[in-house]
Predict the 3D structure of the following.
Amino acid sequence: MAEEVKLFGAWGSPYSRRIELALKLKGLQFEYIEEDLYNKSPALLKYNPVHKKVPVLVHNGKPVAESLVILEYIDETWKHNPFLPTDPYEKAKARFWARFIDEKFWPAAKKAMASREREREEAIEEAQQHLKTLESELKEKKIFGRESLGFVDIAAHLLVWLVVAQEAFGVEILTEEKFPAVHELYRRLADEAVFKECMPPKEQLIAYLKEAIEETRPHLKALESGLKERKFVGGESLGFVELAANVIKFPTVHEWYQRFADDAVFKECAPPRSDSLPIIKLYLEPPASK
């Protein structure tokens, strides 16, 4: 009986493209199902009811979600052309660096793309600090210590997306001058035939990224306009929207945030700053032994 392999993905998602890449590196036949992320299919919601996101791999009717989890599932299910080393320590290191790219570097890079002015400078600095860490690890190593493409390289394909995003948003994070080893890895990955096959056309991707940013602006402008002559969304008193609000980097909206942050009842319900900062840091930077 032939195996059934389906991949639910999205054209502009680097994470679903990552799984497409892994399946092709294994030489597997699969059915690709394009999802409209603004109108998610019943099948996607059925197979990933927790996160409701792509990618989702469905193997003989059994769904697996989250891209790094899917990568390991693929590698353990189809053992030819292995992604992970056999040595337990080397395998642990590969998992560590893949998570570092996903959980540290990529969020900082995305923040740099979306931020403006001072916030952008701070986000670029943070992303480049993570690149320095990768640069140190890559020195004198070829593709994270392997002669062939592996688990970390598939995760690091985000570098290829980063360079396209830099051009789209006019941001400079990864350069050959500052990070020669990381840039060499990017170049090597970008030149791989299978990586090229799994990347959207550059000009289309740039247009897609710019459109995604522009789609958010009318909503922020509408919120900005609605706040111009009011203290709060509901008028002169606190309401439901204030309770659900986060800081958004638009001037009047930020002023609104500051106003309800200074409100006595909000202050009463917030823990003392000196007590909350260590807890926040604990969550953002968990101990190495965790």
User: Anything to note?
Assistant: Residues 14 and 197 are 13 Å apart (CA to CA). The chain has a mean pLDDT of 82. The chain is about 60% helix and 5% strand.
